[in-house]
Amino acid sequence: MLLIITRAVHIGACMILLSLFAFEILVARPALRETDRSASPHMEVLREQFRLLAVWSGFAAIASGIVWFWIVLARMTGSSLWEMPSIDSIDIAITQTQFGRLWTWRLSLMLLFTIANLFARRNCRTFLWSSRAWQYAGAIVATTLLASITWAGHAGATIGAERPIHLTADAAHLIAAGLWPGGLLPLTLLLVQVSKSNEPSVFLIAGAMARRFSVVSVLVVGALAATGLMNSYFLVGSLRALVTSAYGRLLMLKVFLFFMMVALGACNLLRFKSQLPLANEQNAKQPDALRKLMSNVIAELCIGTLIVLIVGALGATPPPRHRM
Predict the structure, then answer these.
(1) What is the pLDDT of residue 209?
(2) How far is 234 from 231, CA to CA, in rounded Å?
(3) What is the pLDDT of residues 74-120, one digit of tens each?
(4) 268-300: burial string, b at 16+ Cβ within 10 Å, e else
(5) At what angle do helices 200-235 and 286-315 cross, to 10 degrees?
(6) 210, 293 Cβ separation under 8 angstroms
(7) What's phi and psi for 262, nearest 5 deg?
(8) Phi, psi dihedrals of residue 278, rounded to the nearest 5°
(9) What is the DSSP string of 297-309?
(10) How far is 15 from 142, CA to CA, in rounded Å?
């Protein structure tokens, strides 16, 4: 159970990191170009929230990464989690195993990145998070951290000619998940910020961002489905194994929740986002549409959290094809 929770926290924290920078690049920046720039003061508040969330997510990723390494080390040495392994065992685990080498550079990168966000001078924070260079640099770092988890999972244990294909599919699946459902968190923060204002320009920016996020989500859902099917082939292999194995049943639960999220997202797209204003447009339904949209997005986010927990459990459960 500890490994499941640790994996889920670590993956979730890395997803949040990517979602913050991807939201800025794919949603916020283009929407700000399309709409009234008077909404930018609200973006300053939102970007400070993004920065703080990036810091806390970084610390969560570091802490859960250390616990994850400790659990793996205990299993390698056959000792209890509460026993201190020998220095030689730690050295071997760090320098002579794929997991140890991977975790060394990942945790180092996380620490440097988190410190950069934490200790940015107060008068530089707004500039830093609004800087195109920082947004792209952050997106590259976050993508690297999230995609590299692949080598610590079942895909990393795949052998033969299938290995590079499986690693690529799993990495793409993780990156796509960082965009959606990961992007639901920054979208929720945006909607909460907008709900506190009655300024028309703020509703305009919310409408533009919600529509852009919908476009990104539709594309990502297709990528998640395609890469998910590839992963299922490499790990499950047959319909019988899908039904009879613990891994397969967890996977079916994950797929069921995924379709629930897609249904909620479709409802948002077809019913509520269309009621948010276009440029130079006033709409009496704005507050009501915004409230309903925010409720549905929060519901999507809760289901997404459950899916991340299931992903943590899937990573700790032997897949059928690896037991053959």
Answers:
(1) 86
(2) 5
(3) 888 877 788 877 888 888 888 888 889 999 999 999 999 998 888 76
(4) bbeebbbbbbeeeeebeebeebbebbbebbebb
(5) 20
(6) yes
(7) -60, -40
(8) -85, 175
(9) HHHHHHHHHHHHH
(10) 8
The runs of H, that is alpha helices, within 96-199 are 98-118, 122-130, 132-147, 162-179, 184-195
Q: What does the pLDDT average to over 290-294?
A: 81
Euclidean distance between CA atoms 112 and 234, whole angstroms = 35
Phi, psi (deg, nearest 5) at residue 166: -65, -45
Q: Does residue 244 carry a pLDDT above 80?
A: yes
Angle at 275 between CA 272 and CA 280, to 5 degrees: 145
**Number of structural domains in the chain:** 1
Q: Report pLDDT digits (tens) over 107-157.
A: 999 999 998 888 765 556 555 667 888 889 999 999 999 999 999 988 888
d(CA 15, CA 304): 11
DSSP state at residue 223: H
Predicted confidence at residue 39, as pLDDT, reads 52
Cα separation, 160 vs 5, whole angstroms: 31
Q: Which residue has the tokens 């009496």?
A: 284
Q: From CA 287, how far away is CA 275, in angstroms rounded?
A: 10
Domain around 124: 2-323
- How many other CB atoms are there within 10 angstroms of residue 86's CB atom? 11
Residues in the chain: 324
- With a CB cutoff of 8 Å and minimum separation 6, the contacts of 151 are 98, 99, 102, 167
Residues 6+ apart with CB under 8 A from 165: 230, 234
> Which amino acid makes up residue 176?
A
Q: Which among 32, 125, 108 is positioned nearest to 66, based on CA atoms? A: 108
Is 100:71 a contact under the CB 8 Å cutoff? no
Token pair in block for residue 129: 């998070």
